[in-house]
């Protein structure tokens, strides 16, 4: 079943790349079922996260949240910090879509901390920016500016725009 599940996962990735999100959801769900049957909980959790990402693209946020829930726990139990952080980020994206902003911010911030522990500065910066964007959207401007500055500091290879932005953000400190 694992070979078939692996093939379904690859087909799902191709469908996602081709922006066939509905098809990707179905393929990832089938792969998740196969990996679950084969007692490969890590790959099953990975597929559930892929389902979540595709559902966010379809703006089906409640289903996306449901798909990703508790996958972070599976990765944490396996000491897979990077995938735990990804799972929390996926949950946060779904919560953001549901306008459950405080919960989304908390998940993004936990995700950023884990990416930092995993040495993934660019991914840490990405989720920190997402948290900052929610704070801007909800009127938490000062807190957002400091979050953005933290995100820019975490980035391994900042662009010229990001270096300029970092300079201006330091001025408000």
Give an account of the 3D structure.
The chain has 173 residues and is an all-alpha fold. The protein folds into two domains: 1-60, no CATH class; 69-173, Alpha Horseshoe (Serine Threonine Protein Phosphatase 5, Tetratricopeptide repeat), CATH 1.25.40. It contains ten helices and no strands. The longest helix has 17 residues, at 21-37. It is globular. It starts with a helix and ends with a helix.
SSE layout:
Blueprint (H helix, E strand, L loop, with lengths): L1 H16 L3 H17 L3 H17 L3 H8 L2 H7 L3 H17 L3 H17 L3 H17 L3 H14 L5 H13 L1
Summarize the structure.
This protein has about 170 residues and is mainly α. It has helices at about 1-15, 20-35, 40-55, 60-70, 70-75, 80-95, 100-115, 120-135, 140-155, 160-170.
| Overall strand count | 0
CATH topology of the largest domain: Serine Threonine Protein Phosphatase 5, Tetratricopeptide repeat
**How many distinct domains?**
2
Mean pLDDT: 89
Helix coverage percent: over 70%
Q: How would you characterize the largest beta sheet?
A: none
CATH architecture of the largest domain: Alpha Horseshoe
In whole angstroms, the N-to-C terminal distance is 56 Å
Sequence stretches where pLDDT stays below 50 over 5 or more residues: none
Cα-atom radius of gyration: 17 Å
Number of helices: 10
The dominant shape is: globular
- The percent range for strand residues is under 5%
Question: Under the CATH scheme, which class of the largest domain?
Answer: Mainly Alpha
Order of helices and strands, N to C? HHHHHHHHHH
Structural class: mainly alpha
């Amino acid at each position: 079943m694992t070979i078939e599940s692996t093939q379904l996962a690859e087909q799902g990735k191709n469908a996602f790349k081709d922006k066939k999100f509905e098809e990707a959801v179905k393929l990832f769900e089938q792969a998740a079922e196969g990996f679950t049957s084969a007692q490969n909980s890590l790959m099953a959790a990975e597929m559930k996260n892929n389902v979540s990402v595709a559902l966010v693209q379809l703006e089906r946020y409640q289903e996306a949240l449901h798909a990703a829930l508790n996958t972070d726990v599976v990765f944490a139990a396996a000491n897979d910090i990077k995938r735990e952080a990804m799972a929390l980020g996926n949950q946060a994206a779904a919560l953001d879509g549901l306008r459950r902003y405080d919960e989304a911010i908390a998940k993004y911030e936990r995700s950023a901390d884990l990416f930092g522990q995993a040495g993934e500065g660019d991914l840490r910066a990405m989720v920190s920016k997402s948290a900052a964007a929610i704070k801007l959207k909800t009127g938490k401007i000062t807190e957002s500016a400091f979050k953005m500055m933290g995100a820019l500091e975490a980035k391994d290879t900042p662009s010229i725009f990001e270096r300029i932005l970092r300079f201006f953000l330091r001025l408000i400190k």
